[in-house]
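Hi support team,

I submitted a single chain yesterday and got back a structure, but I'm not sure I'm reading the token output correctly. Could someone confirm the output below corresponds to the sequence I sent? I've pasted both exactly as they appear in my results page.

Thanks,
R.
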Amino acid sequence: MIHELMSNELWLGLNSYAWITIVTVLSIFVVMARSRIPAEVAFLGALTVLLVTGVVSEEEGMAGFGSEPVVVHAAFFVIIAGLMQTGVLYWLTKHVLGDPKNYGYAVLRLMVPISLLAAFLNSVNVVALFIDAVKIWARKLSISPSKLLLPLSYAATLGGMCTLMGNSSNLVVAGLYLSKTGKSMHIFEPLLPGLILTAVGILMVVLLRNKIPSRDSAEQSFETTSDYTVELLVPTDNPAVGNTVEEAGLINVKGGSLVEIVRFDKEIIMPVPKDEWILGGDRLIYAGQINEILELKRSHGLAAADHHVWSIDDIDKKRRMRTAYVTFGSELIGQSMTQCDFEQKNNVALVAVARQGRRISGQPREIKIQAGDTLLLECPPKNDSQLEQDNRRNLTFFDSHFVPQLGPKTVTSAIILVLMFLISSFHVLPLMATTMLAAGAMMLLGCCRITGVAKYIEWELLLILGSTVVFSVAITKTGIADAIAVNVLHLCGSNPYIVMAVMCLLASIVSEFVSDVGASAVFFPIMYEQSVLLDCNPMPFVISLMLSVTISFASPIGSNTHMLIYGPGSFRFTDFALLGIWMHMVLLALCLVIVNLIYPLY
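Hi R., thanks for writing in. Yes, this is the structure output for that exact sequence:
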């Protein structure tokens, strides 16, 4: 009865369900603009609101997670696992980059193959794979990593436009189109306009490469760890012996903090709890400002140790110093290590923090973390993969150097990938069935270990994809799409070119501040409804939307590939706008022209 009353109450032509949907979707945009809130939390929270208020039924809510975009992406993660574990992607990485003569040629040499790979292997996967390689390449060429990491992200985004597999938003639009029309899109449906946009985009980056900022690499701040770690010895007759580190005033000191204790029997205590006892012969490892920490020798009667523990000749050669970047949406943002249990929970110690390429002075554990910060962590010798898996939401590690063995399975997984694209291209099987078949073949033929597949699956992305499909259903079901479509037509007239341009402009702007996936799900039902009201072929509307939401070059939060390079490149938020605004305007205008030349409106 309540649902009936809500559905019958109208305000500005929309019922209560419609307004709940509008407020919910707008709330997602607001929440996602704040870097501390994980995207999947925002989307699942919004989905919960729609379910609880009855805007969508349980069946409609669950159907989103069994839709084509979700299933195809899940299967593709298994395929990527096979390509990684058998060495196909390692082989590609090794042979793609060369030895260019100058920076301009380096940008071209990087962007062309990366854009081609992104079309087949998904832009996010390609960027994640190549970040370490590009940083090493930049050092070899004596170029700031930021000067090559930004072209890497742009190239992957551009190449991803060319196929349905290239970008997540492409799959979302294709899945929504299937649900509306019952017709499957060809995997290379956006290929021709995508290729033209990619070529023009690469040309723009090469010509305007001077607009790409040069930023100091955060790793350069961490290269000589003895510059900021101090090891002090506790003499056996020191008054602090027998007290806790807190009672002796040795845990948080001026200029740094105690990150580790090494006992005389080589036992390592890390992180150090406040109630840990001090014994004679202990070696106390401090991180921070050397000059200030060395004052402890005078004030607390400590002695200089023979060498720094964090050096090449470490006590335990299996211990590792690892570099991690704070992701957007990380729970660590806005907190210091003293305010959370991150170190204790993961058995790691924060040694130093760098921001925009420069190490931050002061006590590392007292520094409030920001998105994009680079953290130098001392990690336990084992379970590196578990550490990465447990902290995927908070940190991204880019110092894993897994080198697979090339062999017969390398060829097998490459053949599976090629066959997948051929079968889908010639419509032998639908895209969903093709990717599931390829994923099954990867596992059955031993190209990937089932136990190792989980770390390659982006569960957060699958949750977001499933939720966006439900939002699109809600926007259509409540009449929002029809109402907006009618009002836009009233304002813009019945010229389909103007209507398409206005909607694509709005969608591309929204995608700069939210995700391209969210923007495509919100704008698809509106665009489709407009094509129906104008009695036009929906394909140019759909393809123009698919491409326009991907043209997110001016903001780091509008694209997953930009978020990946934000920390490693030591970028500032505004760095993307210097070149990105020009890319956005030129490619959006070109997109509208090309799409309407290729796809007839009537």
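A quick pointer for reading it: The first helix runs from residue 2 to 8. Let us know if anything else looks off.

Best,
Support desk
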